[in-house]
């Protein structure tokens, strides 16, 4: 059974010995984890009482990091609270499109001159 965590509750748990983090509209109690966090306690402490989704995603946390979350889950964040939560938008796909386009472009940049060079030598040796 899942609890609903209100904005007031989120804001009430911003002390190191009782600390809630809001990620992807879910609330996690990171009190026990905070001292072990590889990124340090300060970065997490500065996200108290607000939506930490963007900060968490900007770091590009690993699957191992994400796998720690279920154990710390407290409940879903209340819908329609004053706090605007961000949905999980990952910016990787659009970046990928750009880099494949650039890669295809640079392949052409190699193959066109190589093809011309090949054509020239074919003409030199087998032509007139
Ligand atoms: C609340 C749940 C969180 C968990 C379970 C978690 C877990 C982890 C883990 C396991 C790592 C090691 C690298 C990796 O596996 O990705 C890491 C690194 C890091 N985390 Fe978090 N993290 C949490 C929240 C945050 C938040 C809210 C921030 C905010 C800014 C943050 C900032 C960082 C930074 C900057 C690193 C990089 C440390 C380095 O490479 O030196 N983390 N975190």
Automatic annotation (TrEMBL):
Signal peptide: none annotated. Its main location: endoplasmic reticulum. It holds the Pfam family Cyt-b5. The keyword Electron transport applies. Residues 2-78 form the Cytochrome b5 heme-binding domain. InterPro entries: Cyt_B5-like_heme/steroid-bd, Cyt_B5-like_heme/steroid_sf, Cyt_B5_heme-BS, Cytochrome_b5. This is Cytochrome b5 heme-binding domain-containing protein. It comes from the Eukaryota. It is a single-pass membrane protein. One of its GO terms (cellular component) is endoplasmic reticulum membrane. The keyword Transferase does not apply. GO terms for molecular function: heme binding; metal ion binding. Belongs to the cytochrome b5 family. It is found in: Endoplasmic reticulum membrane; Microsome membrane. Keywords: Electron transport, Endoplasmic reticulum, Heme, Iron, Membrane, Metal-binding, Microsome, Transmembrane, Transport.
């Amino acid at each position: 059974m899942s609890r609903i965590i209100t904005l007031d509750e989120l804001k009430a748990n911003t002390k190191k010995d009782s600390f809630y983090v809001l990620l992807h509209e879910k609330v996690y109690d990171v009190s026990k984890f905070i001292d072990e966090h590889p990124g340090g306690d300060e970065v997490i402490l500065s996200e108290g009482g607000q939506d930490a989704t963007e900060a968490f995603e900007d770091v590009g946390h690993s699957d191992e990091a994400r796998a720690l979350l279920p154990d710390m889950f407290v409940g879903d964040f209340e819908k329609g609270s004053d706090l605007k939560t961000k949905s999980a938008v990952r910016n990787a796909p659009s970046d990928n499109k750009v880099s494949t386009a650039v890669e295809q472009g640079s392949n052409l940049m190699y193959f066109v001159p190589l093809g011309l060079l090949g054509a020239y030598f074919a003409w030199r040796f087998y032509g007139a």
